[in-house]
Every structure is written in structure tokens, then in C-alpha cells.
Amino acid sequence: MKKLLSLIMLVSVLVSPGFMFSQLEEPMEKKLTLKDAIFYGLKNNLDLQIQKTAVQSNWESLRIAKSIYIPTLNIDSYYGSSLTPSTNVYDAVDVVESQVTRWRSSISQMLPFGGTLSFGFNTTKSDSNSLTFSVNPSIDTNAGFNLSQPLLKNFGLLPTKYNIYVSANNHNMSELQLRENIIQLVYSIESAYWELVYAHQSHEATKVALQRAKDLLKQNQVKEKVGTIAPIDVLSSKAQVARNESSVISAERIIQIREETLKNILNMSKENVTIVPTDTPEIESVPVDFKAFLLEALENRPDIKRQKINLKTNNLGVRYYKNQTLPNLRLDAGYSTYGQGGTEWDIDYNLDPLDPNFRTQVEERTFMDSLREVLKMINKNYYFQFTLQVPIGFKEERARLAQARINLKRALLELKNTENNIYKEVKDIIKELESNRKLVEAERVAMQLVGENLRAEEKKLSVGLSTNFNVQEYQRQLADAETSYLRAVIDYTLSLARLNQVLARTFKTHDIKLDDYNEE
């Protein structure tokens, strides 16, 4: 019974919240510069890893498309034996036994204009116990070329390489999509990083405001003791301290939210770390030139490059499907030579097959003899053949051509739409930059003036020429002004990041090289 009670107590301790939480390690502090954050994001972000697989897949598709030009080698060998009852008295046997051994080889190659050229070499050896064959055993050798070439439909470089062109364009588009995703990711990292910086700075500002309120409370408590102010002033100061403490708690919660946002982008949510940003925003003046910005965006942005490639792909599609509406006229041609070897017999059908003189050996020729005949082209054969196929109506081909033209029109509209969006984004970012730059200066001046007013009011209060209410009001105004200034600085910094995104300067600004982030 005692053992059972001891076991129950042990289990209760192990599963108690206090014990479990005591086992959790305190999160480690991880200091991050913006450059570090971008590095971790590009290295670990899962969405980016998914897009990289799309690039790799399209590269393999391009390799598959190019494989049509890889020569194909075919080699086969055959051996067969047969036993058949004799139906010819001159066989001189009751059962005819035959053996055939064959070796065949060929190599074929796709031609640039859609045709196929092949070369073949074959050797067949036949042997039989029948006496009726004038050459037995026989060695037949032949070699030759065959050409199959479309002359209308599928003729030319475009029909032949269409899938290669499309696959290459798809691969380039996937790479541009990857670059576009990187630009968007870097902007998201910058946005999350600077929002976290702002959360920390705002938290520090609320702590400073809290300390001011506490200092004023202490002064008022001393004044209350000596009877220079009423108790209501102390209560008012305590209320202000409580409000500022609430602001500090809210600021701490915002830090946690902003930190989780950044950790999620960097794929660090599972890590038991607390991110501490170490960079501070700097007010960098940027010369603004709408025309220069617009030309830079139109030249460098991945999205418009993708649309231009998409337009090329659809233009190729129109040309390809226009070719597919032609009749299918095909030329087939071949040239070959034959050579023969083996044992040649002279057969005298006037004699009895069982007579030893029924057949006499004339000549013994080897495989090399048959090969020499092939090389000397003694026995030449060639052919030409034209085949015409004409689908009645061409309904499918014409429908595909119409569809390709619609896709081309859509691609052109998408390109124009992208250009319009870029035009708007460049205008918007210029306005945003100018507005936020002015706002930074205005908020800085406002913060300085409110600070001067607060110091003046504190001096007046010290000589009895002001009230606690006025001082507390200026303290609130200063806290708001400091927060507004910090917000303006962060907004301007984000505008600079947004400018890099709109003009596709991200890779150059942050010195990003894709090879640095590829998996081993």
C-alpha cells in the first residue's frame, strides 16, 4: 500500500504544471541584424524552397524536350530452329531441319527540320539439311540508310523544336518567378524586422513615459506631505502611472506578436529563441526621378520579364498551330546494298536426289566476302515514297489555332496590365517617399517642441505656476510625439524597402546571389 501511495505521489509531481514548466528551458536570446534576417529567410523559408523545386522541375522538363536530338541505338540478335515434314522430293530428307541466326543493328537521329535519318546493318545466317537450296548455309548481309521527312505539316525548325522552346521559356519564367518571390520575401523580412524594431523602440518609449510619471508621482507625494498640493493631485498621478504601466504591458505584447511574425517568415517558429534586432533605422535621402525610376522598373522587374517571355511563348504557339493546319505530306526514301556469302552449290535436277552427284560445291564464300559486296555496292536498292494525309475539315487543328490566337491576345493584355501596374506603383512609391520624408521632419520638430513645452511646464510647476494636470498632459503629448516620430522613421525606412521592391533593386542593394542559398 505504501508503494502504491508513493507511486501516485511521484506521478502527481511529474504531471503537475509547476514541474512541467520548470523543465522548459528559458528561450535563448538571438541577436539579428537585418542582413542576418535576410540570410536566414532566403535559406530557410519554405515557400521559397517550394519555388526552387519548380525551377528544378522545369529544368528537367527542358532536358527531356532536348532529348529528341539524342541518337537512338537499336541492337538485337535472334536464333531460331525448326523441324518441318518434307513436301519436296528433292529435299532428300523426311524432315527438313533449319536454323536461322540473325544480328541486326541500327542508329537513328532526329534532323533539325523534323525528319528522321537512320542507318542499319543486318546479317542473317541460314542453314538447312534440305538439298534444294543453291546456297546453303547462306550468309546475307545488308546495310542502308532510310529517311523520313515531313514536307508540309511538322516541317521546319519551329515544329521540331517547339517543345524545346516552350520548355526553355517555362524554365526561364520559373527562374524569374523565383527572383520575384525572393524580392517579395526580402521585403516581407524587412517589413517584419523594422516592425519588430519599432515595437522595441515603442516599448522603450512607454517605459520612459512610465518613469516620468513615476518621478512626478514621487514629487507629488513629497508635496502632499508638506501640504503644498491636494491629495487629488496624487491620485491623478497614480492614475497616470497605472495608464503608463498598461501601455508598457501592451507594448510587450506587441513585441511578442511582431517577433512571431518575423520568426514565421524565417521558419524559426519552432526554435526556442528570442529575436533581438540590433539594427536601427537611418534616414537616408534618396533622389527622386520618375522617368529614371520607371525605366529601371520596366527593364529589371521579373514580373514584366515573365510577361514578355509568356508573350513569346504564345506567339510561338500561334506559328506552331498554324503549321499544324497544313496537310501531312511525307517523303520516305531509302538506299541499301546487299551482299551474300556461304556455300554455293550446283544442283542437277536430272539426277536422283540421293545420287552423290545431285549437287556439287561451286564456291565457298565467307562473311567477309558478303561484307565486301556491301561495301562495293554491287547490289544496290533504293526507293522514294510520298504519302499525303488530309483530315477532312481540319476542325481540331483550326480550333487549336484559334485557341492559340486567343492566348496570344490575352498574353498581350496581361503585359499591358503589368506595365500599367508598374507605372502606378512607381508613382505611388515616389509620393509615399516624399510624404514620409516630410512626415519624419515634421514629427521630429513636433517632438522637440513638445519636449521643450514639458520642460518649461515642469519648471513652472516647481515654482507653483502650473498644475499637475498640465504637466501630465504634456507628458502624454511627449509620449505620443515620440511614438509618432518613431513610427514616421519606420514608415520612411519601409518606403525605402518598398522602393527596392518596386524597382527590383533588392538583389543589388542586399548583394544577394542565388548560389549562396542553394542546397548542397
Biggest sheet overview: 7 strands, antiparallel
Amount of helix: 55-70%
CATH topology grouping of the largest domain: Outer membrane efflux proteins (OEP)
Number of strands: 9
Shape annotation: elongated
Q: What's the domain count? A: 2
- The secondary-structure element order is HHEHHEEEEHHEHHEEHEHHH
- Poorly predicted runs: 13-24
Distance between the termini: 60 Å
From the helix content, strand content and strand pairing, which structural class follows? alpha+beta
Mean pLDDT across every amino acid position: 85
Structural summary, described in words:
The chain is an alpha+beta fold and 520 residues long. The protein has 2 domains: 29-63 and 160-317 and 399-517, Up-down Bundle (Outer membrane efflux proteins (OEP)); 77-110 and 115-146 and 331-389, no CATH class. The protein contains 12 helices and 9 strands. The strands form 2 sheets. Strands 2, 3, 4, 5, 7, 8 and 9 form a 7-stranded antiparallel β-sheet that branches. A two-stranded parallel ribbon has the order 1-6. A hairpin with a 5-residue loop joins strand 3 (95-110) and strand 4. The radius of gyration is 44 Å and the shape is elongated. It starts with a helix and ends in an 11-residue tail after the last helix.
